[in-house]
Amino acid sequence: MGHGVNQRSAIKMSPDEIQAFIEERRPMTMCTVNHDGTIHAVAMWYGLVDGMIAIETKAKSQKARNLARDPRATLLFEDGDYYEELRGVELVCRAEVIDDPERMWALGVNLYERYYGTYRDELRPFVEAMLNKRIVAVFHVDRTVSWDHRKLGLPSTRPPA
Length: 161
What we know:
By secondary structure, the protein is of the alpha+beta class. The protein has one domain: Roll (Pnp Oxidase, Chain A), CATH 2.30.110.10. It contains five helices and seven strands; from the N terminus they run H-H-E-E-E-E-H-E-E-H-H-E. The protein is globular. The two termini are 28 Å apart.
């Protein structure tokens, strides 16, 4: 990268790259605001409902209480072990708690398939148990930040095998 080149714009992911990255199977870090203003950060599995990132969590969990009080959240998706491999997406969002049983069920099935495999009708009791005493939240994205250091074309710092 020479002088005058905006590195930030060079490593930014396209909307299609962001979508593909988020659709990969991985955990995300979800940050919510605690009652005292500190940040509560936790690794979460996530699914997609109506094209939006969605989570399920215990109704009495800290993150559920935080979202009920303040719907602001930041979601972080990341990958890479070495600087030249780092990729990530940060979504600054507002959470919406979903209580519609059909949408909750859709997330339950989506999560099962993302992290366990193909859903079959005989697995219904498992998904029902997974959603018992839980809330589902979908996230409306206000701002997206992304980076993909592979676009820099840097030499590998990965040690030889």
